[in-house]
Amino acid sequence: MEVTSLREPKMADRVATVLRRMFIRGEIPEGTMLPPESELMERFGVSRPTLREAFRVLESESLIEVQRGVRGGARVTRPRRETLARYAGLILEYEGVTVKDVYDARVAIETPMVAELARTRNPAAIAELERIVEQESQIRPGSDEAVDQLTDFHAAVARLCDNQTLQMISAMLHHIIEKANRSLQPTKGDRAEQAARRSAETHRMVLDLIKAGDVEKATELWRKHLQKGEEYVLSGAELSTVVDLLE
């Protein structure tokens, strides 16, 4: 049997892989403090720098939180969907992907979600959307909070669908679109107020169609709503890229 000698960085990756597998399988539950460094170094047969490099990998993946100091240590944490959104956003930024591309992807993903909500008419999902629509009726168009509140309905559509993979992809896109909504569209003035009112009214209409179980009309109205929203936000900014949202 041939054995390839392991360099320190490679060994750190292997330590991280073993610990990651134990976290995901639930062998080390969320919230657990890992044993002291000296004990882990002995168990894995590695040096302190190698173990700390493994910790840095796991910390970057939101799988542990490292607390410094005499009474510090590494605590197991649950990976957050926001981490996925942040890293995916960085890749889109690096690749020079346009914001329009992101909006088009949202149409492709969210439209079937609305269809599924209308098809199933889940009482809990409808109650959640009712709560959001009621909150939207209380917002003041043109206020700083209006843009964020009007995106809550979109986030809920994704959150309430049964497919968890689609939920995560949608959350990633939502993270980017929230930035676009704040930086590329006007938030003050008559045009912004009219757009906010139209959005709130459309959300109510879509909810009524979902409650009625009218899959076809709910789907078509939601598709038009997303397309109109894209046209409004990207008016004059069709070639903006995701990286532009950082400026």
Automatic annotation (TrEMBL):
Organism encoding this protein: Mycolicibacterium hassiacum (strain DSM 44199 / CIP 105218 / JCM 12690 / 3849) (Mycobacterium hassiacum)
SMART domains per the UniProt record, alphabetical: FCD, HTH_GNTR
Q: Which SUPFAM superfamilies match?
A: GntR ligand-binding domain-like, Winged helix' DNA-binding domain
Q: By what name is this protein known?
A: Bacterial regulatory s, gntR family protein
Keyword terms, alphabetized: DNA-binding, Transcription, Transcription regulation
Q: Which GO terms describe its molecular function?
A: DNA binding; DNA-binding transcription factor activity
**InterPro entries registered for this protein in UniProt:** GntR_C, TF_FadR/GntR_C, Tscrpt_reg_HTH_GntR, WH-like_DNA-bd_sf, WH_DNA-bd_sf
Keyword Transcription regulation among record annotations: yes
Does this UniProt record's set of keywords contain Iron? Answer: no
- The signal peptide annotation in the UniProt record is none
One Pfam family hit? GntR
